[in-house]
Amino acid sequence: MTAAPRRGPPREVRIIGGQWKRSKLPVADLPGLRPTPDRVRETLFNWLGQDLDGWRCLDAFAGSGALGFEAASRGAAVVVLVERERSLVRSLNECRERLGANAVKIESADSLAFMRRGSPASYELVFIDPPFGANLFESALSAAAPLVVFGGFVYLEADRAFDDAGVAPLGLAVHRHGRAGAVHFHLLQRTADSTIA
Q: Which residues contact 123 (CB under 8 A, 6 or more apart)?
């Protein structure tokens, strides 16, 4: 009798569109690392439009880099991946070199600290997908909102739904929302200046 296969996060994810379509990205076996599923990424980039030509993007909790590399694959001019776990930073650098992803810059840093010292209106799109157990959703949104240009977007994955009332004080509105299992994913649009200092 053979043992049942181990269930858990995938060992790799694939880029699903653009220049590096079907290229594989490794997924480390680390607590809290939960790469965005293919079908969620496909939905997100359908919402955004398939072509991100010229966009500046920040993947604030990069992990496997699936969101950031997907954006670069679809033409983003600048993609900053922020990750503090050293083994993941090494893996991200290896993927960047293998793909020849010259638009991708990797920062070994704490995500919240990096965003808080960022320049206002620096990005068209900021991805926020923190470990669910860390309870960073509100603080990450507060740090990300000022970085986005008017009309730009913040993508948020969370363990619960966020509504307009919850994000309006940050100058954001819910543009789209979806759910995949326990994961709520949101595309929030910058509609006004933040009233939070």
A: 55, 56, 57, 58, 147, 148, 149, 152
Through-space distance between the first and last CA atoms of the chain, rounded to whole angstroms: 61
Residue 185 pLDDT > 70: yes
Mean pLDDT calculated for residue range 29-35? 66
Name residue, tokens 């939905």. Answer: 43
What ranges do the domains of the chain cover? 50-118, 129-197
**Average predicted confidence (pLDDT) for the chain:** 89
- 125 touches 58 (CB < 8 A): yes
Q: Are 77 and 56 in contact (CB under 8 A)?
A: yes
Whether 50-118 shares its CATH topology with 129-197 is answered yes
Q: How far is CA 66 from the centre of its chain?
A: 8
Are 129 and 36 within 8 A, CB to CB? Answer: yes
Q: The domain at 50-118 falls in which architecture? A: 3-Layer(aba) Sandwich (3.40)
d(CA 100, CA 94): 10
Domain 129-197 fold is Rossmann fold (3.40.50)
